[in-house]
C-alpha cells in the first residue's frame, strides 16, 4: 500500500509498514499523480449531464407550486433569463459576438425560434394544469421523434426504418397515456392536458429544427443564440398575455421564488450544462437524456406532489422511450 501526500513542491510517498518517506521533485510528483488519476478517469461531461437532467426535471414541480397562470409563469421564466444574461453585455467580446449576428438574416431565425419556443412553454405549462406531471413530461419529451418526422416531412431528410418504428411506438405510447387510467369525470381535461403537451413537443421540435438550420448557415455563439431567442420568446409571451387580457405584472409575491428557480435551475444551469456536454459527448447521448428527465420528473411528482403513476402512463412512457432510443441511436443509418 502506498500513501501519497502532496505539499508545496514535494510529494511525500509513504509505504507502510516500512514507513519509508521519499521526497520527489514537483515535476516527478505531477507525473506520478497524473498516472494515478488516469487509472480512475472522471468524465466531468457525464457529471454535468446528470446535474443538468436533475435541474431540468424539477421544472414541472416548480410550476405546480406556483399559483400563477401559465402565461405568467412562462413569461417570468424567460424574462428573468434575459435579465440574468444581460450583464454579459458588459463584456467587449460578448458585444462583438452580438454585433456579428445583428443582421436581419440572423434575426429572422431568432424571431422564428423565439416564436416556436414561446408556444412550447405556454402550451406545456398549461398542460400541467390538466394532467399529471408524469404524463405531461413524458409526452413533451417525445420531441426528438417529432424532430425526425418534421425534418423528413419538410426537408425530405433521410428517415430510417428504425425511426419509423420509433414514431409508431411513440404514437401508441401517447394514445395509451391519453386514454389511460383516468375516471370518466376527469378524462376530458386529462386528454386536453396530454394534447397540450403533445403540441408543446411539436413546437419545441420546430424550435430545434430552426436552430439546426441557423447553425448550419451561420457561426453563432451559444450565448448570443440563447440571449436573442429568449428575448424574442419573452416578447411573444407578453403579446399573448395582452391578447388573453392577462396582466403578467400582477402575481403573488411568493411565486417569484418559483420563477427564479425556473430561470436559474432548468433554463440557465440545466441548458448551460447540456451545451457543455454536447461539446464533449455525441448529440445522440445528450438527446437520450430526455428519458432521464421524464423519469426524474415522475419520481419528483410522486415525492413532492403525491402523484401516482398509472400503469398505462408507465407503459406508454416505455413505448415512447423505446421509440426515442430506436430513433436516436440509428440516426446515421440509411433506410
Task: Give the mean pLDDT.
Answer: 84
- Portion in strands: under 5%
Strand numbers in spatial order across the main sheet? 1-2-3
Low-confidence stretches: 1-24
Biggest sheet architecture: 3 strands, antiparallel
Q: Quick one: overall form? A: globular
Helical amount among residues, as a percent range?
A: over 70%
H/E order of the elements?
A: EEEHHHHHHHHHHHHHHH
Nearest-angstrom radius of gyration? 24 Å
Walkthrough of the structure:
This protein is mainly α and 335 residues long. The protein folds into 2 domains: 1-41; 45-329, no CATH class. Helix content is 73%, strand content 5%. It is built from 15 helices and 3 strands. It has helices at 26-38, 44-57, 59-65, 70-85, 92-99, 104-127, 133-140, 143-155, 161-178, 184-217, 222-243, 255-280, 283-287, 289-305, 311-329; strands at residues 3-7, 10-15, 20-24. The chain has a 3-stranded antiparallel sheet. The longest helix is centred in the middle third of the chain and has 34 residues, at 184-217.
Amino acid at each position: 500500500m502506498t500513501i501519497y501526500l502532496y505539499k508545496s513542491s514535494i510529494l511525500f510517498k509513504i509505504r507502510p509498514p516500512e514507513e519509508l518517506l521519499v521526497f520527489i521533485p514537483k515535476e516527478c510528483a505531477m507525473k506520478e499523480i497524473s498516472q494515478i488519476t488516469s487509472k480512475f478517469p472522471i468524465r466531468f461531461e457525464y457529471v454535468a449531464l446528470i446535474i443538468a437532467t436533475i435541474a431540468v426535471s424539477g421544472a414541472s414541480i416548480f410550476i405546480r407550486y406556483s399559483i400563477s397562470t401559465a402565461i405568467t409563469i412562462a413569461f417570468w421564466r424567460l424574462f428573468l433569463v434575459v435579465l440574468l444574461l444581460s450583464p454579459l453585455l458588459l463584456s467587449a467580446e460578448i458585444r462583438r459576438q452580438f454585433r456579428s449576428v445583428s443582421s436581419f438574416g440572423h434575426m429572422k431565425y431568432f424571431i422564428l425560434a423565439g416564436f416556436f419556443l414561446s408556444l412550447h412553454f405556454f402550451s406545456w405549462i398549461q398542460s400541467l394544469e390538466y394532467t399529471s406531471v408524469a404524463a405531461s413530461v413524458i409526452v413533451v419529451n417525445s420531441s426528438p421523434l417529432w424532430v425526425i418526422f418534421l425534418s423528413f416531412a419538410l426537408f425530405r431528410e433521410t428517415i430510417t426504418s428504425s425511426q419509423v418504428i420509433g414514431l409508431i411506438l411513440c404514437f401508441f405510447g401517447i394514445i395509451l397515456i391519453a386514454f389511460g387510467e383516468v375516471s370518466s369525470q376527469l378524462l376530458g381535461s386529462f386528454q386536453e392536458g396530454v394534447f397540450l403537451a403533445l403540441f408543446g413537443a411539436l413546437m419545441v421540435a420546430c424550435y430545434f429544427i430552426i436552430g439546426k438550420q441557423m447553425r448550419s448557415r451561420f457561426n453563432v455563439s451559444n450565448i448570443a443564440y440563447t440571449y436573442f431567442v429568449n428575448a424574442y420568446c419573452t416578447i411573444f409571451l407578453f403579446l399573448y398575455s395582452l391578447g388573453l387580457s392577462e396582466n403578467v405584472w400582477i402575481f403573488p409575491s411568493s411565486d417569484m421564488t418559483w420563477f427564479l428557480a425556473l430561470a436559474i435551475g432548468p433554463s440557465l444551469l440545466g441548458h448551460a450544462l447540456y451545451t457543455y456536454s454536447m461539446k464533449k459527448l455525441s448529440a445522440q447521448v445528450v438527446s437520450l437524456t430526455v428519458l432521464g428527465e421524464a423519469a426524474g420528473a415522475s419520481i419528483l411528482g410522486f415525492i413532492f406532489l403525491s402523484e401516482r403513476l398509472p400503469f398505462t402512463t408507465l407503459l406508454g412512457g416505455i413505448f415512447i422511450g423505446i421509440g426515442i432510443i430506436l430513433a436516436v441511436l440509428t440516426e446515421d443509418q440509411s433506410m
